[in-house]
C-alpha cells in the first residue's frame, strides 16, 4: 500500500477536474493577450472605435459601391440581430426567416408603389409593414409550440419555400368576387418603381442617406440586443434555448417567449425588408430564395451563435468577402496572402518557413523541366508574369496550351491533395506542403483566374467548410464543454 | 397501508396534497390511485425501486403530465393540468435526476433566469433602462447572492461568472437547488439530490436540505436512493412500488417494512448498513 | 378515370426519384441525427457521372456496348462515384464536427453544396445536358393499359427504387453492418464499447446513401430530366421533404413519402395548377408535421424528464 | 507478487481532455482471475481510466497492454477482440433493438458466433433468454443490468470492465448487481470494476486502487483498503 | 522549346545557388536572366508595330453562377470572343469585367453601383433579365452609362424610363404576334396550350403569345409551371388529344426537348413550338417549331466563322449567346468611334451607341437602334426541326 506524498487535500475532495476546466478557459499566447487587452478597454471605446470607422467611411473618399455594400451589410446586420434572438438565444431553428424579410419588402412595395396605386407616407407604411410582419411571424411561430428541434426547422423551411412560390405565382389570382384575375405580386417580374423612404420631408434618395440610416438602426438594434442579453427576457430566452423543459420549471413561460422571439425577429426582418425595397426601389422574388437564407445563417453561425460581436463580424464576413472576391485584382492578393500567412501560421517555425517556400519555388522549376521533357506543349507567359522577372516567373508557373483541361486536372488534384494532406501527420504534411502550395498557385493562375465568378463561389463554399472544421463554435462563439 | 402521519392531521391545509392520482402510459400504470399529503415545512422522502413511478410523481405535481384521474392541491388549490411554468410561479420548484442546468449560462445567469416569474420588467423597460428595470436588476443581484449564500463559498467568488458546465458535478447539483430556490417557491421537489456525490458531499447536502426547512421553512419532497440521506433528512418516508404506496411512516418504520425490503432494500441492506 | 391513372403513373415515377433521394437523407439522419443538406449535390454529381459514362461509351446513339450493359455501367459508375464523393464529404466536412453543435454541420453542408455546384460548373461547364434516352430506348414501347402508358425507363425507375429500398431495408435489419448502423444510431459511445467502429459504420452509411443518390441521378437523367449543376438543390429539397413526410429515419417512410409527394405533385398539376404543386406539397407536409410531428411512419420521440 | 503477465496493464498513463490533464501517470494491473475495484470520487479520472483501457481515449503518453501486448494505438474493436469487454455506466442498452440484437452487437467483433455462446449466456441468465425478442428499452432495471452483462460476455472476454454498476440503482438492485458480479467472478471471469460505492465494491473485490485527482493514491488488497482509516473516513461513511 | 527547357533548368540552377547561399550566386543569376531575356525579346518583337490607342473596360452582367449559369456562361464567352476579335482587328486594348448577378435583381442592383464606381468601365453588356434591367436602369441612366442587353425582352423596358438602355433583340411584342400568327395561319392550329414558365422571360412571352392567339381566334390555355419543375409528364398529360400546338417558353432548350419527347411517347398529336429560348441543339425532336430573332447563325456566312471559333473554344451554344456578341460589338464600335473623336468617356460612348450601325451582323441583318433603344427592323424567324433535329427556316 502506498500513498502519494504530495497529496495534501485528503482523499474524497475532488473538484479538481472542473477547476482545470476553469483554468483552461483562459487562453494563452499572444492572441489571447491581445484579446485580453482589447477586452480590458472600456466598452464605450471597444464599440466606439469600430463605429467611428464605419461612420467615417463615406467621408474617406468612398464611392456608391462601397456605400451600397455598406447598406447591404447594414440590412444583413439587422437580419442577423433579429435572427439571433430566435436562433442564437431561443434555440429555435427558424429556416423560414427570409420569408419575413421578403414579406416586409413586398408589403412595403405594395403600400408604396404603383402596384395598387398606393403611396402611403413612409412612416405609416413602415409601421404597417413591421406590425403585419410581426403578426406573420407570430403565426409562423405557432407550430413551435408543438414542433421542436429539427422538425421545427423543417416546417419553417417549407414556410419559407412556400413564400417564394406564392410570390412567383400570385400574379394572376382569381378572386371569386372579381371578374379579372388580379396581379398581387408582379409574379416573376416583381414590383418595380417602389417609392423611396421619405420621413418628415427628408427623402432618402442617395446611397449615403440609406447608409447613415442603417448605421443608426444597427446601432440601436445592437444596443437593444445588448441590453436584452443580460435582462430577464434575454436570460429566459437563452434558458429555453438551453433546456426548454427545465426553463418551464423555473417559472419561464416558454410558449409565450418562443412566440415573442418569433414575433420580434419577424418585426426586425420586416423593417429590414421595407428598407431593402426602398433602397432597391423594387422587389423581386428571386432575392428571397435559399441562397440568402444560407448566407444569413452562415453569418450568425460563423461569428458565433448568440454572441453579438460574433453576429456582427459574421455578417461582415459574409457580405464583404464575397464582394472582394469578385475582383481578380483583390482576390489574387487575398489568395496569395492567405496562402502565405496560412502556411506560416501552420508551420509556426522560422526555420521551416523558408525551407517550405524554397521547396515550393524549386518544385515549379522541376515541374517545368519535367513537363518539357515529356513533351507537354505549353506557353510560358502567364498574365501576371510581368516586369523584369517575367521570364523566370513564366517558367515557374507556366501556362499550358490546354489551359482548361490541364487546369481542371490540376484543380481536382489540388482538392484531392489538400483533402489527403489533412489526414496525414504533421511531418508528412510538411514534406508535401511545397508541392501542394505550388499546385495551388498553379491551379489558381491556370484555371481559377479564368473564371473569377465561379472561383468566388468555390472559395466561399470552401471557406464555410474549413471555418466550421477548425472552429465549429464560430469565431466568437464559446465552445460548449462537457467535463467528463 | 400506513395511516397518515401526525403532522398532516395537526395542520388543516397541507402544503401539497395528492388525491387518488392515477397516471397511465399506454397500458402501463405508472401511478395508481396515489394519495398523500405534505404538511408545510415537512420533509417527505419518496423511495422505491427503479420504475416505481417516483419521477412520474414529480412530473404530475409540476404539470408536465396531467393525471388521468385524481387531483393535485397546492395549499388547498387545485393545480391539476396547470402548465409547468404556472405551477412554478405558484410555488413549486424542482431539481432533476440528471441535472438540467442551463449549461452555457453562468452561475449568476442560471439563478437570475429562474427569477423570471418574480420580476416584471417589460422589453420596453429593458431596452430603455427605466427605473423599474434598474431596480429589479439590483434586487436580482441581491437575491442571487442570497440563494448562493446557502452553500457557503462553494458557488461564490470567481465561480459566479463561470458557465455551469465548468462546475464540478457536486456544484452542479448545488446550483440546481439554488436555482430552484430562486424561483421564490415554497415547495421544493428534489430528485436524487445526492446522486453521484461522495460521502462527504452527501453529508453536506443532507445538512443543507435540513437547513432549507429549518431556516427557510421550505416544504420539501425528496426522491433518493441513498439511505443515509433519507435517514438524515426525512420527517416522513413513503415507499412506492409500481405506482402504489407500499409503506409510509418514519424512516425506521419504512426501512423495516417487509414489503419495502422485498421490493427495494434487499435483505442484506439492513445487515450491511 | 384514365386521366387519373395517367397522372397517378406520372406521380409514382416522379415519386420513385424523390424516394431514392429521400432514402439517402433518411439513412444518414437515422444514423447520425443530422441532415446532410449536400445530399442533393451528390445526386447531381451522379447524374453527371452517368452522362459522361454514356458519352465515353459512345454516346446515346452509337454505344460501343449493348444498351443494357451501357445502362448498367452508367449506374455502377454513378453509384460508385457518388459513394466515393459522399465518403469524402463525410470525412472532411462532417467528421470533424461530429461532436459539435447541431448547427455547425448544417453550415458545413451548405459550404459543401456551394463547393460541389461550382466545382461541377468549373469542371463540366455550364451547359445543360440531356441523356437523350429516346435514342437508345424506345420510349413508345412498354406497358399500356388503355391510355395509361408506362415506358421502359419509368418501369425501371419504379422497380429499381422498390428493389433498392427492399435491399436497403434488408441490409439495415438483417446484416451485421445494419445492426452496427442501428446501434450507432441509438448510442454511439455504447456502440464503440461493443467494438463497433463508428467511423467505419458512418463511412458505409454515407457510401450507401450517396450511392443511392448517384443511382437517382442516373434515373432522373434517363427520365430526361435536364442535367445541370443546380439540379440537386430542388431535387434535394423534394427528397428531403419526402423523407420528413414519411418520418425521417424510417426506410419505408422515405419510400412512402417519396411516392406521396410525387403523386401529390402530379395530381395538383393535373387537376389544379402546376405552380401550386409545390405550395400544396409543402402545405401537406406542414400539416402532417403538425398532426404527427415525426412524420407518417416516424417513431414518436421518447420524452426524457 | 508473481511475474505473471497481467491481463490488463496501464503503464504511466497520462491523458488529456483538451488542455486538462486528467490522468497523471496512472499505473494499474489486473491479473487473470482477479477482481479489482477502482475507487474514487467524482471527476477523479475513474471513468477516464476505463476509457483509456478500452481505447475510447488515447493517452498522450504511457502505454496500455492487454495480455502483454501493447495496444495503445489500437481501436476499441481490436482491443475487444483481444479479450476485454465493457459494461458501460448506466448500462447503455440499445433500447429500440431487441435483446437478441443487443447480444448480437455484443458479439460484433467476432466473425462467427456459434449457437453455444448464446446458450451460455442464456443459461447464465434465464431471464434474458425469456426476453430475447423483447425490445431492450422495455425491460426493467434489473433485467437491463443482466442484458448489459450478457451483451459484454458475448465477445468471450478474458476480462470484464464494469463502469459504476451501482449507478442510479435502488439498494436492492445494487445488491443484486454485486451478487451477479461476484457470481461471474467465481465462475472465473476476471474483473475490473469502477465504483463510487466503495463499501460494496471492497466487500467483493480482491484488490483495489483508489484514484484521486488523476493519480493512484492508494492500492492494495481489498481487505486492507477497507481498513484504511483515511479511506474509511472519506468513502465508507460514518 | 529548347530555350524554354534551358530557362527552366537555368531557373532551377539559379534557385539552387541562391538557396545554398553560394557567394557566386549573383553571376549565376545574371546569366540566367540573360538567358531569360531571349524569349522575352522575341515575344516583344512578334507584337504588331503600331501602338494601340483605344481601350477601356466593358462590364458583362450575366448570371455566371447560380441556376441560370448555362445562359450566363454562354453570354460571357460570346462577349469574350467579341472583345478578342475586336482587339485583334483594331489593335485595341478593350477588356472585360465580369459581373455575376445570378439573375437576381437585387444583386444586379448592387453590382450596378460597382460598375458605375469603376470609371474605367465605358459600357455594359447586359444584364440578362428584364427585372434586372429595371433594377439597374436608374443607376446607369444617372451615370450616363450605356448598357446593351442581349436577352431582356420585356417591351416595357424601352418606354423611356431607361434612356441609356439598348437591346439587340426584339421584344416579346414582336415575337408573340409573329409566333401566334404562324401558329394560327401556317400551322392552322385550332387549339393551343401555352406552357408559361414562371420567370420574367417566360411570363412575358407567354402573355404576348396567348393574347395574340386569342386575338387570332385560336383557342388557347395557359399552363403556368414553376421554374424548378423537373418532370413535365404530368403537364403533358393535361394536354388534350385535340391540341395541335404546345407553345413553350423555357429558357433552357433541354426542357422543350423534354416536353416534346413526352408528347411523342404519350402518342399525342400536338407538336412543340418553342420561343427563342429553345433555339439550341438540345431541342431536336423532329417536327417541332422554334422561333428565333435571327436566321440560324451557322447558316450566315458572316456568322459561320464566329460560330465555328466559338464552338472550338467553348463548345456548343444556344440562343442567348450570339446576340451578346453583337451587343458587345455595338459597344466596342461606339467606343472606338468615340475614341477616334477624342471623347472616349462614358458620355462619348453613349452618344456613339445611339449611332450604332453594324452592317451584316452575325444575327443576319444590320443592327441599329431606334430612339427608344430597341433594335430597328426587329423581326422573328421561324424554324421547323427536321428529323435530324436541324432547324430549317420556314418563315
Automatic annotation (TrEMBL), chain A:
Molecular functions per Gene Ontology: branched-chain amino acid transmembrane transporter activity
Stretches assigned to coiled coil: none
Keywords: Cell membrane, Membrane, Transmembrane, Transmembrane helix
CDD domains noted in UniProt: TM_PBP1_LivM_like
Keyword GTP-binding: no
Protein topology in the membrane: Multi-pass membrane protein
Classification via Pfam families: BPD_transp_2
Name listed for the protein in its UniProt record: Unannotated protein
Automatic annotation (TrEMBL), chain B:
Pfam families: ABC_tran, BCA_ABC_TP_C
PROSITE patterns xrefs: ABC_TRANSPORTER_2 (PS50893)
Name this polypeptide is given: Unannotated protein
InterPro entries: AAA+_ATPase, ABC_AA/LPS_Transport, ABC_transporter-like_ATP-bd, BCA_ABC_TP_C, P-loop_NTPase
Keywords recorded for this protein, A-Z: ATP-binding, Nucleotide-binding, Transport
Keyword Transport: yes
Gene Ontology CC: plasma membrane
Sequence intervals crossing the membrane: none
GO molecular function: ATP binding; ATP hydrolysis activity; L-isoleucine transmembrane transporter activity; L-phenylalanine transmembrane transporter activity; L-valine transmembrane transporter activity
UniProt KW Nucleotide-binding keyword: yes
Record-level GO BP terms: D-alanine transmembrane transport; L-alanine transport; L-isoleucine import across plasma membrane; L-valine import across plasma membrane
Automatic annotation (TrEMBL), chain C:
Keyword Transmembrane applies: yes
Principal localisation: membrane
Residue spans crossing the bilayer: 12-35, 42-62, 68-94, 106-126, 155-172, 202-227, 239-263, 275-291
GO CC, one annotated term: plasma membrane
GO BP annotation list: D-alanine transmembrane transport; L-alanine transport; L-isoleucine import across plasma membrane
A Pfam match: BPD_transp_2
Keywords: Amino-acid transport, Cell inner membrane, Cell membrane, Membrane, Transmembrane, Transmembrane helix, Transport
Entry membrane topology: Multi-pass membrane protein
Keyword flag Hydrolase: no
InterPro entries: ABC_transp_permease (IPR001851), BCAA_transport_permease (IPR052157)
Subcellular location: Cell membrane
GO molecular function, one term: L-isoleucine transmembrane transporter activity
Family under the similarity heading: Belongs to the binding-protein-dependent transport system permease family. LivHM subfamily.
Name this protein carries in UniProt: Unannotated protein
Automatic annotation (TrEMBL), chain E:
Residues in Leucine-binding protein domain copies: 58-389
Keyword Signal recorded: yes
Gene3D superfamilies for the chain: 3.40.50.2300
Keywords: Signal
Pfam family for this entry, one: Peripla_BP_6
InterPro entries (UniProt xref): Leu-bd (IPR028081), Peripla_BP_I (IPR028082)
Presence of the UniProt keyword Signal in the record: yes
Protein name per UniProt: Unannotated protein
Organism this protein belongs to: freshwater metagenome
Amino acid at each position: 500500500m502506498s500513498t502519494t506524498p504530495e497529496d495534501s487535500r485528503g482523499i474524497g475532495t475532488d473538484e479538481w477536474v472542473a477547476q482545470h476546466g476553469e483554468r483552461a478557459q483562459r487562453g494563452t499566447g499572444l492572441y489571447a493577450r491581445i484579446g485580453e487587452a482589447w477586452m480590458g478597454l472600456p466598452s464605450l471605446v471597444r464599440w466606439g472605435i469600430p463605429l467611428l470607422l464605419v461612420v467615417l467611411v463615406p467621408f474617406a473618399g468612398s464611392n456608391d459601391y462601397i456605400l451600397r455594400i455598406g447598406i447591404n451589410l447594414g440590412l444583413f446586420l439587422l437580419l442577423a440581430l433579429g435572427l439571433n434572438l430566435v436562433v442564437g438565444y431561443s434555440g429555435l431553428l427558424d429556416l423560414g426567416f427570409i420569408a419575413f424579410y421578403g414579406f416586409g419588402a413586398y408589403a412595403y412595395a405594395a403600400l408604396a408603389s404603383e402596384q395598387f396605386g398606393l403611396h402611403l407616407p413612409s412612416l405609416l407604411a413602415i409601421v404597417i409593414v413591421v406590425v403585419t410582419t410581426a403578426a406573420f411571424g407570430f403565426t409562423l411561430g405557432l407550430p413551435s409550440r408543438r414542433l421542436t428541434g429539427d422538425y421545427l426547422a423543417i416546417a419553417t423551411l417549407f414556410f419559407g419555400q412556400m413564400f417564394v412560390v406564392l410570390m412567383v405565382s400570385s400574379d394572376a389570382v382569381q378572386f371569386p368576387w372579381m371578374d379579372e384575375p388580379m396581379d398581387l405580386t408582379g409574379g416573376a417580374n416583381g414590383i418595380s418603381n417602389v417609392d423611396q423612404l421619405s420621413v418628415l420631408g427628408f427623402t432618402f434618395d442617395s446611397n449615403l442617406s440609406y447608409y447613415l440610416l442603417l448605421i443608426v438602426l444597427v446601432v440601436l438594434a445592437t444596443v437593444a440586443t445588448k441590453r436584452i442579453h443580460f435582462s430577464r427576457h434575454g436570460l429566459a430566452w437563452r434558458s429555453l434555448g438551453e433546456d426548454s423543459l427545465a426553463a418551464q420549471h423555473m417559472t419561464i413561460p416558454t410558449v409565450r417567449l418562443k412566440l415573442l422571439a418569433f414575433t420580434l425577429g419577424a418585426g426586425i426582418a420586416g423593417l429590414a425588408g421595407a428598407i431593402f425595397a426602398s433602397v432597391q426601389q423594387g422587389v423581386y422574388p428571386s432575392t428571397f430564395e435559399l441562397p440568402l437564407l444560407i448566407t444569413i445563417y452562415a453569418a450568425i453561425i460563423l461569428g458565433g451563435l448568440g454572441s453579438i460581436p460574433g453576429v456582427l463580424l459574421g455578417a461582415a464576413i459574409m457580405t464583404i468577402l464575397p464582394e472582394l472576391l469578385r475582383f481578380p485584382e483583390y482576390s489574387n492578393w487575398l489568395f496569395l496572402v492567405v496562402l502565405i500567412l496560412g502556411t506560416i501560421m501552420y508551420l509556426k517555425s522560422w526555420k521551416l518557413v523558408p525551407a517550405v517556400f524554397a521547396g515550393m519555388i524549386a518544385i515549379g522549376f522541376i515541374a517545368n523541366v519535367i513537363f518539357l521533357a515529356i513533351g507537354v506543349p505549353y506557353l510560358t507567359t502567364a498574365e501576371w508574369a510581368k516586369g523584369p522577372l517575367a521570364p523566370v516567373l513564366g517558367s515557374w508557373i507556366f501556362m499550358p496550351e490546354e489551359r482548361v483541361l490541364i487546369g481542371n486536372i490540376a484543380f481536382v488534384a489540388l482538392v484531392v491533395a489538400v483533402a489527403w494532406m489533412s489526414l496525414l501527420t504533421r511531418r508528412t504534411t510538411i514534406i508535401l506542403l511545397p508541392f501542394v502550395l505550388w499546385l495551388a498557385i498553379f491551379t489558381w493562375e491556370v484555371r481559377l483566374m479564368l473564371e473569377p465568378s465561379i472561383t468566388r463561389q468555390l472559395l466561399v463554399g470552401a471557406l464555410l467548410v474549413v471555418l466550421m472544421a477548425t472552429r465549429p463554435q464560430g469565431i466568437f462563439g464559446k465552445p460548449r464543454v462537457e467535463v467528463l | 397501508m400506513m395511516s397518515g402521519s401526525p403532522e398532516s392531521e395537526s395542520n388543516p391545509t397541507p402544503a401539497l396534497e395528492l388525491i387518488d392520482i392515477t397516471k397511465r402510459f399506454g397500458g402501463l400504470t405508472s401511478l395508481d390511485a396515489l394519495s398523500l399529503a405534505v404538511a408545510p415545512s415537512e420533509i417527505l422522502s419518496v423511495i422505491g425501486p427503479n420504475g416505481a413511478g417516483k419521477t412520474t410523481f414529480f412530473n404530475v405535481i409540476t404539470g408536465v403530465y396531467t393525471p388521468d384521474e385524481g387531483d393535485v392541491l397546492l395549499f388547498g388549490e387545485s393545480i391539476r393540468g396547470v402548465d409547468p411554468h404556472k405551477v412554478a410561479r405558484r410555488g413549486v420548484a424542482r431539481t432533476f435526476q440528471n441535472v438540467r442546468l442551463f449549461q452555457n449560462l453562468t452561475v449568476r445567469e442560471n439563478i437570475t433566469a429562474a427569477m423570471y416569474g418574480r420580476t416584471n420588467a417589460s422589453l420596453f423597460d429593458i431596452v430603455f433602462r427605466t427605473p423599474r428595470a434598474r431596480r429589479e436588476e439590483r434586487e436580482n443581484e441581491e437575491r442571487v447572492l442570497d440563494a448562493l449564500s446557502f452553500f457557503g463559498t462553494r458557488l461564490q467568488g470567481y465561480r459566479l461568472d463561470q458557465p455551469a458546465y465548468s462546475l464540478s458535478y457536486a456544484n452542479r447539483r448545488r446550483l440546481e437547488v439554488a436555482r430552484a430556490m430562486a424561483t421564490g417557491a415554497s415547495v421544493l421537489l428534489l430528485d436524487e439530490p445526492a446522486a453521484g456525490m461522495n460521502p462527504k458531499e452527501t453529508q453536506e447536502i443532507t445538512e443543507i436540505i435540513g437547513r432549507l426547512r429549518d431556516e427557510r421553512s421550505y416544504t420539501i419532497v425528496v426522491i433518493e436512493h441513498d439511505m443515509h440521506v433519507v435517514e438524515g433528512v426525512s420527517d416522513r418516508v413513503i415507499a412506492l412500488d409500481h405506482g402504489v404506496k407500499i409503506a409510509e411512516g418514519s424512516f425506521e418504520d419504512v426501512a423495516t417494512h417487509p414489503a419495502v425490503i422485498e421490493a427495494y432494500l434487499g435483505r442484506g441492506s439492513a445487515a450491511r448498513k | 378515370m384514365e386521366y387519373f391513372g395517367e397522372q397517378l403513373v406520372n406521380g409514382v415515377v416522379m415519386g420513385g426519384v424523390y424516394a431514392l433521394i429521400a432514402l439517402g437523407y433518411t439513412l444518414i439522419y437515422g444514423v447520425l441525427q443530422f441532415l446532410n443538406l449536400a445530399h442533393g449535390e451528390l445526386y447531381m454529381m451522379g447524374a453527371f457521372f452517368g452522362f459522361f459514362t454514356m458519352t465515353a461509351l459512345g454516346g446515346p446513339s452509337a454505344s460501343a456496348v449493348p444498351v443494357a450493359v451501357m445502362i448498367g455501367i452508367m449506374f455502377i459508375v454513378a453509384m460508385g462515384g457518388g459513394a466515393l464523393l459522399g465518403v469524402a464529404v463525410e470525412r472532411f466536412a462532417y467528421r470533424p464536427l461530429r461532436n459539435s453543435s447541431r448547427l455547425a454541420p448544417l453550415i458545413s453542408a451548405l459550404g459543401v453544396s456551394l463547393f460541389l455546384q461550382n466545382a461541377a460548373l468549373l469542371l463540366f461547364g455550364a451547359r445543360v445536358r440531356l441523356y437523350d434516352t429516346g435514342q437508345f430506348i424506345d420510349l413508345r414501347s412498354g406497358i399500356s393499359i388503355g391510355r395509361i402508358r408506362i415506358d421502359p425507363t419509368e418501369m425501371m425507375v419504379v422497380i429499381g427504387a422498390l428493389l433498392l429500398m427492399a435491399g436497403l431495408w434488408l441490409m439495415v435489419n438483417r446484416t451485421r453492418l445494419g445492426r452496427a448502423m442501428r446501434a450507432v444510431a441509438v448510442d454511439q459511445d455504447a456502440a464503440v464499447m461493443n467494438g463497433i467502429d463508428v467511423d467505419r459504420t458512418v463511412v458505409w452509411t454515407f457510401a450507401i446513401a450517396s450511392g443511392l443518390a448517384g443511382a437517382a441521378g442516373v434515373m432522373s437523367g434517363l427520365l430526361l430530366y435536364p442535367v445541370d449543376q443546380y439540379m440537386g438543390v430542388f431535387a434535394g429539397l423534394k427528397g428531403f421533404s419526402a423523407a420528413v413526410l414519411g418520418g425521417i429515419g424510417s426506410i419505408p417512410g422515405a419510400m412512402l413519402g417519396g411516392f406521396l409527394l410525387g403523386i401529390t405533385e402530379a395530381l395538383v398539376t393535373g387537376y389544379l395548377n402546376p405552380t401550386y404543386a409545390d405550395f400544396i406539397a409543402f402545405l401537406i407536409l406542414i400539416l402532417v408535421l403538425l398532426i404527427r410531428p415525426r412524420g407518417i411512419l416516424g417513431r414518436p420521440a421518447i420524452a426524457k424528464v | 507478487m508473481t511475474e505473471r503477465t497481467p491481463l490488463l496493464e496501464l503503464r504511466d498513463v497520462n491523458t488529456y481532455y483538451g488542455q486538462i490533464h486528467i490522468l497523471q501517470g496512472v499505473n494499474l494491473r489486473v491479473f487473470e482471475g482477479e477482481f479489482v475495484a477502482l475507487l474514487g470520487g467524482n471527476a477523479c479520472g475513474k471513468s477516464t481510466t476505463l476509457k483509456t483501457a478500452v481505447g475510447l481515449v488515447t493517452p498522450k503518453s504511457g502505454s496500455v497492454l492487454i495480455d502483454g501486448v501493447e495496444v495503445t494505438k489500437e481501436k476499441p474493436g481490436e482491443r475487444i477482440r483481444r479479450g476485454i469487454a465493457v459494461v458501460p455506466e448506466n448500462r447503455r442498452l440499445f433500447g429500440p433493438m431487441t435483446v437478441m440484437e443487443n447480444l448480437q452487437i455484443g458479439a460484433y467483433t467476432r466473425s462467427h458466433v456459434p449457437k453455444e455462446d448464446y446458450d451460455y449466456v442464456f443459461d447464465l441468465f434465464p431471464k434474458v433468454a425469456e426476453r430475447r425478442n423483447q425490445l431492450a428499452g422495455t425491460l426493467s432495471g434489473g433485467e437491463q443490468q443482466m442484458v448489459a452483462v450478457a451483451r459484454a460476455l458475448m465477445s468471450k472476454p478474458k476480462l470484464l470492465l464494469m463502469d459504476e454498476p451501482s449507478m442510479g440503482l435502488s439498494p436492492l438492485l445494487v445488491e443484486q448487481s454485486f451478487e451477479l458480479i461476484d457470481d461471474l467472478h467465481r465462475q472465473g471471469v476476471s474483473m475490473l470494476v469502477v465504483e463510487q460505492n466503495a463499501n460494496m465494491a471492497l466487500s467483493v473485490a480482491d484488490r483495489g486502487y483508489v484514484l484521486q485527482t488523476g493519480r493512484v493514491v492508494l492500492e492494495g488488497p481489498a481487505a486492507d483498503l477497507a481498513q484504511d482509516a483515511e479511506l474509511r473516513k472519506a468513502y465508507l461513511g460514518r | 522549346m529548347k530555350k524554354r527547357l534551358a530557362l527552366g533548368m537555368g531557373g532551377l540552377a539559379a534557385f539552387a545557388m541562391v538557396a545554398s547561399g553560394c557567394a557566386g550566386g549573383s553571376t549565376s543569376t545574371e546569366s540566367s536572366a540573360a538567358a531569360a531575356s531571349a524569349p522575352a525579346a522575341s515575344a516583344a518583337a512578334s507584337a504588331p508595330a503600331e501602338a494601340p490607342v483605344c481601350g477601356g473596360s466593358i462590364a458583362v452582367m450575366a448570371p455566371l453562377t447560380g441556376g441560370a449559369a448555362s445562359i450566363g456562361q454562354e453570354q460571357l464567352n460570346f462577349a469574350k470572343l467579341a472583345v478578342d476579335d475586336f482587339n485583334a482587328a483594331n489593335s485595341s486594348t478593350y477588356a472585360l469585367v465580369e459581373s455575376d448577378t445570378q439573375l437576381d435583381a437585387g444583386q444586379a442592383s448592387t453590382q450596378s453601383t460597382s460598375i458605375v464606381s469603376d470609371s474605367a468601365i465605358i459600357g455594359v453588356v447586359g444584364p440578362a433579365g428584364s427585372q434586372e434591367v429595371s433594377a439597374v436602369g436608374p443607376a446607369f441612366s444617372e451615370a450616363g452609362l450605356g448598357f446593351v442587353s442581349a436577352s431582356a425582352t420585356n417591351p416595357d423596358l424601352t418606354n423611356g424610363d431607361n434612356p441609356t438602355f439598348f437591346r439587340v433583340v426584339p421584344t416579346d411584342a414582336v415575337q408573340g404576334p409573329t409566333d401566334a400568327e404562324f401558329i394560327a395561319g401556317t400551322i392552322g392550329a385550332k387549339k393551343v396550350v401555352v406552357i408559361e414558365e414562371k420567370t420574367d422571360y417566360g411570363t412575358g412571352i407567354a402573355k404576348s403569345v396567348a393574347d395574340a392567339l386569342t386575338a387570332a381566334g385560336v383557342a388557347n390555355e395557359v399552363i403556368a409551371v414553376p421554374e424548378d419543375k423537373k418532370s413535365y409528364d404530368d403537364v403533358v398529360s393535361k394536354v388534350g388529344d385535340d391540341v395541335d400546338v404546345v407553345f413553350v417558353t423555357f429558357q433552357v432548350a433541354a426542357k422543350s426537348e423534354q416536353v416534346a419527347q413526352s408528347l411523342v411517347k404519350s402518342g399525342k398529336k400536338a407538336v412543340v413550338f418553342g420561343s427563342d429560348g429553345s433555339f439550341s441543339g438540345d431541342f431536336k425532336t423532329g417536327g417541332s417549331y422554334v422561333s428565333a430573332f435571327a436566321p440560324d447563325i451557322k447558316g450566315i456566312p458572316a456568322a459561320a466563322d464566329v460560330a465555328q471559333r466559338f464552338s472550338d473554344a467553348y463548345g456548343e451554344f444556344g440562343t442567348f449567346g450570339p446576340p451578346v456578341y453583337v451587343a458587345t460589338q455595338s459597344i466596342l464600335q461606339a467606343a472606338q468611334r468615340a475614341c477616334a473623336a477624342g471623347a472616349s468617356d462614358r458620355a462619348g460612348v453613349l452618344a456613339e451607341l445611339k449611332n450604332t450601325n453594324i452592317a451584316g451582323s452575325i444575327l443576319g441583318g444590320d443592327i441599329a437602334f431606334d430612339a427608344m433603344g430597341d433594335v430597328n427592323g426587329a423581326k422573328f424567324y421561324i424554324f421547323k426541326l427536321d428529323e435530324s433535329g436541324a432547324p430549317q427556316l420556314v418563315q
